[in-house]
Amino acid sequence: MNDAVTRETLIPRLQDALGAHAVLGDAPDIVGYTEDWRGRYRGEALCVVLPSTTIQVSDVVRLCAAAGVPILPQGGNTSLCGGAVPPADGPAPVILNLARMRQVRQVDAANGSMIVEAGCILKTVQETAAGVGRLYPVSLGAEGSCQIGGTLSTNAGGTSVLRYGNTRENVLGLEVVLADGTIWDGLRVLRKDNTGIDLKHLFIGAEGTLGIITAAALKLHPLPTQHSLAWFAPRDPAAAQQILGRFQNACGSRLSGFEIMNRHQLDRVLANVPNRRNPLADAHAWHVLVELSDTRDADGLEAVLTQTLGEAIEQGLIEDAVIAANDTQRADLWEVRHSVSEANKKAAVGLTTDCAVPVSSVPEFIDAATRAVHAVVPGLDIAIVGHMGDGNVHFIPMFSFAAWAALPDSGSMGDILRACVNDVAARLSGTFSAEHGVGQTGLPLMQRYKSRAELALMRTVKAALDPNQLFNPGRLVP
Amino acid sequence: MNDAVTRETLIPRLQDALGAHAVLGDAPDIVGYTEDWRGRYRGEALCVVLPSTTIQVSDVVRLCAAAGVPILPQGGNTSLCGGAVPPADGPAPVILNLARMRQVRQVDAANGSMIVEAGCILKTVQETAAGVGRLYPVSLGAEGSCQIGGTLSTNAGGTSVLRYGNTRENVLGLEVVLADGTIWDGLRVLRKDNTGIDLKHLFIGAEGTLGIITAAALKLHPLPTQHSLAWFAPRDPAAAQQILGRFQNACGSRLSGFEIMNRHQLDRVLANVPNRRNPLADAHAWHVLVELSDTRDADGLEAVLTQTLGEAIEQGLIEDAVIAANDTQRADLWEVRHSVSEANKKAAVGLTTDCAVPVSSVPEFIDAATRAVHAVVPGLDIAIVGHMGDGNVHFIPMFSFAAWAALPDSGSMGDILRACVNDVAARLSGTFSAEHGVGQTGLPLMQRYKSRAELALMRTVKAALDPNQLFNPGRLVP
Question: Is the dihedral of CA B10, B13, B14, B19 positive or negative?
């Protein structure tokens, strides 16, 4: 590596460093990397590199820095907001995909920790932990294909945040390649470490703009062996919230899931995903999946479900309820919930939003956002599905493909309706992105909803860690 | 504020901004602020300011910045490593004590959150949360006098980390005054918010070097109403670790405390603190306090304790055990544990250390550190007390006052013995500061144990956020 490297000579230099098999340059080879899985975002890349080691990642960073070519780090490409693919305009970056870095480097059941490389699939991590009697709790629809590195860079949420926190709360340490190619080894597996600025939190949720996460030390938990699930139809979101509070008071951290869904969302799943059935006999306006988990005492879980739901039925807070009787029924209930993304992709054009508000404000949010959307398009279908215990509601205005195609300016309509929803969240001290991240969809929203002081502080951090705008330039902080 | 402000005119300008009552300049008034509670660290201050509002904090920062005088933010002054008082040399800073900012701004039981100002006493926060049926879990010996701001700036640990994490994990948002006087309002109470770099984690644990925390949004939990405690004598630390694992498997997050103590430490407490008694009839080499907590099912907790400890006694892992029969007995057990700092201060000169290692390495750490210390001073008394479930062991070589005074160079002896202990921790991938922070004691250790890449990254962040070295210059990152 003696000669100066330029944009023109970068590909051969990358091939020298990684081997030709690890550098994909031809259009047919890289289309799966430059386009998002829903086909909504598409960009150009100079090439795709697939390093196998941290040293190779460092080599790529140094070469790209020397050539002045930006890098877009990429995991399983399952982003819901265009975060994992290049922008439609601007200089084509090198896509650095971590798929080949998939070693599990260490598992320590007694310490409750494991060290994995960024390219490990989330499901593999879950299964490896379970294999030693421990739980890695992060769980979400894309877990069969998303990579740990992507879940870290987006601070992924999912269905277990209520009990175990976001991805951020389940990380003990990181290994990161910095903008000058330096490898920061912060792979500690300690529960406590107060020695200086906590650097790992800079990179978690930074969407690849500050460094490239190559490995992580993850926190494992005691593995719950008992699960009790119920599906019930609350009278309305306010009733659901009241019942959430009762479960929290009654059984504390045994409450591991509390997912709400409206009738339209359930109908989309039933109509578009094979082998899904309505858990209740009749149609209801609102549905909740509640899960209790424990390391022992299955009878106690059942008793809490039976008593809490029974009382709520007597008081008219719930219209109907069913408790899953066995593992198959429990799996079926979760399948209904996890089929939402697939159903909504097939069914129509859904304007996905990802707001969170204080838990106490969820009913008001749903109500006000519905009114705001219907003021623009009266009677429009709205799918609502959310992690109610976290205050995180995906409020999704839905157009049939035909209605969408018939709009004179569908792009503007999308912007207007999303703004209706996000404005309501902002008014309730909420956020426009609870768990999906900023990606491309959220970039203009950062400008709209973030304070000047906050944007300025983020820009200061970005300029300090990535002074030459090498990592994902233009992303995250507008 | 039209005239240029200088070091000479700063005090009157501060008096103009805050009122004369809020600026203490005379030596007798400020001695409680310039000396630490154990009398080990003492420095000079230009004055002490006691602002009542965030705006006033911002005013102080602007004035000090203009005068080129550094600021030392201070809470309850309970640091165990000189972190809250000025250095013995260097320019005298303005001490900015947050004691008068003690409003509880908001409590939302349904959302599980509260917003408090930095000067609130930890115990007040705990009690306010309990008043609405919620738990703020951070708990430590100094909770009656330490301020929330100090616990945030040091990412305080304590006895409930095993179940609820460090202070960091219990924060939802912050309000911070930055180096140019800007107020960053990040007081969100959301469980999920993925909109950009997570700035709050920069300031948590930064020991006042990056900004001044003026208020925080804290995370509250369901309030456990049932507590079962036992005190037992494990055969050795390895047996204690084995029993820890059994409790984790048996009852998951019900395990809320697992504190180990050696015989010497218990003897110090019994000899030096009135009304403390040995929970067991006989003397034993090792002692463990285990606590299970739950929102329900007290009988279940008792059953787990009885069964797990009973089996361990049969297997010879435990020599004796007692289960607390009522609230008084439970309080007595915790009093023994919480009396350690008081006892050690009275008893002798204790060379406090604060290592954490992977939980699986705790027995090896205790063994190797003991050998290392005894290689320097054969037979030296060692008090050991630790949060075993976090891998955090306070390993404390003890000298009688007479023996300490008789040493030709006690300062060097202290450095040598602490280095013995910290080196063992480092060899086991541990840390020299699990929960106390860096303060003044740890500053040379940062240089010794941190990688160049990590120190460089911390310096980059410091230079970006505090370019003129206004906040606690020279602290945290050497």
Answer: positive
